[in-house]
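Give me structure tokens for this 341-residue protein.
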Amino acid sequence: MQSTKFTKAVLAVALAGAFAAPAMAQSSVTVGGLFDTYVGSMQNADNAKSKVVVNSGGMTTSYIGFSGVEDLGSGLKAKFVLNAFLQGDTGAAGRFPGDTLFSRDANLTLSGGFGEVQVGRGLAPNFLPTILFNPFGDSFAFSPLVLRTLTSTINGDTGWSNQIKYTTPSIGGLTVNLHYQLGEVVGNTSKNNVGINALYFNGPLSLTAYYHEVEVKNPGGALDTSRQKASFVGGAYDFGLAKLFATYDETKNNAAVISQDKSDTTSIGVSVPVGAGKVLAGYAVTNRTIGTASEVKSETATVGYDYFISKRTDLYSMLMSNKVTKFDDGTSFGVGIRHRF
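Here you go.
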């Protein structure tokens, strides 16, 4: 009898140890993404006529990917992220021809009480301040702020490759991200991208700012300059009945062939809860001067409604107007569906 009890006790301890070991280093891998497709009539200010389209990424660029996290104990965690953009209307990979496979994310992160250190391809310092401080988020089709900055005046893409990023712990609602992208140019360690952004969230008030100096091209970069300096400030306040947004940024490009290339962009926006969705409205204007040419003024205004069928699926309808100096006005309209999985 004593021998049987002893054997059972040994087996219990062995089984407990077998299950306890992996519990100390728990890990998980998930597959997820987002699919966004819309039908519409699109016309930029420099297009003579509109065109009817079925396009991908009306409100958010479609993507699919993998992520995993392992609890290393003592407050430490290791995480990997691999996300690939895709075009839902054609099935093509990437945002455009030649885009890299995992151009959205391809990085490893170690986090703890000290904050986070991330290595690989990840967000550029311009991305979060831009998409979080306009009512249309990361819409590259209809957001006035995104169209006037990230696709027109900001260089270096919204993601940086070969990047080392440090994120501070949140202190009273304030988080700071430090970005450094190696240029990996033989014999020239000074050719790189550097940047910093700050994000502050405290109740209804949110504030942001970023600064970057870009010299290394990435897929999707808007300009081709020797070095760009850009600064940005933004704020938002949620009154409950409506959330207001406002931003201002300046860019200056230093290039040997252009004596002067600078721009400034101002944007305002509002998001108003109505029923199961939100009415969205925004306006952005950019003034840009290149060399000795006269100033070019570009304006974009959008109004729309985003209706949530569920927590993961929403329908949207957007009307957008574009104006550019010396060009006819352009009007675009789109109706789409977005699903997160």
